[in-house]
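quick q for whoever's on today - can somebody do inverse folding on this one?? i tried earlier but teh output was garbage lol. C-alpha cells:
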C-alpha cells in the first residue's frame, strides 16, 4: 500500500532520509515541467527543481498537513522560478533556437522545411514576447492551467488567491496573449 504525501512528510520530519527521497521522486517531474515552462530553459529548470526541494526540506516544519503537499511544493517552485528570472534580469524570457544557426550548420535541407523552421522560430519568438508581457501571476496561472491542466481551485491555492481571482487571472492572461499574438496570426503566411 502506497503512503500518502502527508504520511511521508511526517516520516521526513522525524529525520527519515528515505521519506524525503520518496517525496522528491514523486514530485520532481511535475515540478520540472512547471519550472521549464516558467524559465524556458532546461538548465534553469533543473536549478529551480533543486532549489525547490532544498527550500521544501528546510521548511518542512511549516507544511500544514491539512494542505495538499503538491500544491505547497508548486508554490515554492513558482517562487524559485520567479526569483531566478528576476536575479538573471530576464523576467520570463524564453530561449529558442536560432533559424540562422540552423541554416549555417546545414540542417535546413529544403525550401518547405526552411519555411516551416523560420515560421516556427518566429512564432516561438512572438509567443515568448507575449508571455513576457504577462505579470508573474498571470504567467503562472496560464502555465498551470493550460500546460499542466491544474484545476482552477488548485491554482488559487498555489497562488494564494481566491478561486474567482484565479479564474480572472487566467482569463486576463489568455486575453493579453490573444491581443499580443493577433497581429502575427493575421499576417502569418498560413492565413493568406
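ok took a stab at it. sequence:
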Amino acid at each position: 500500500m502506497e503512503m500518502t504525501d502527508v504520511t511521508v512528510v511526517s516520516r521526513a520530519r522525524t529525520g527519515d532520509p528515505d521519506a524525503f527521497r520518496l517525496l522528491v521522486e514523486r514530485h520532481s517531474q511535475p515540478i520540472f515541467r512547471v519550472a521549464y515552462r516558467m524559465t524556458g530553459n532546461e538548465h534553469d529548470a533543473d536549478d529551480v527543481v533543486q532549489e525547490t526541494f532544498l527550500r521544501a526540506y528546510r521548511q518542512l516544519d511549516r507544511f500544514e498537513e491539512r494542505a495538499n503537499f503538491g500544491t505547497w511544493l508548486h508554490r515554492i517552485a513558482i517562487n524559485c522560478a520567479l526569483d531566478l528570472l528576476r536575479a538573471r534580469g530576464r523576467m520570463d524570457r524564453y530561449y529558442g533556437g536560432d533559424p540562422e544557426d540552423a541554416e549555417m550548420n546545414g540542417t535546413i535541407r529544403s525550401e518547405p522545411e526552411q519555411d516551416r523552421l523560420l515560421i516556427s522560430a518566429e512564432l516561438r519568438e512572438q509567443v515568448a514576447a507575449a508571455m513576457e508581457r504577462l505579470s508573474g501571476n498571470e504567467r503562472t496561472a496560464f502555465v498551470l492551467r493550460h500546460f499542466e491542466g491544474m484545476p482552477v481551485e488548485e491554482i488559487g491555492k498555489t497562488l494564494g488567491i481566491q478561486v474567482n481571482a484565479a479564474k480572472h487571472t487566467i482569463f486576463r492572461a489568455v486575453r493579453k496573449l490573444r491581443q499580443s499574438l493577433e497581429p502575427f496570426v493575421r499576417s502569418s503566411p498560413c492565413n493568406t
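fwiw The mean pLDDT is 80. also The CA atoms of residues 4 and 69 lie 10 Å apart. so keep that in mind when u check it
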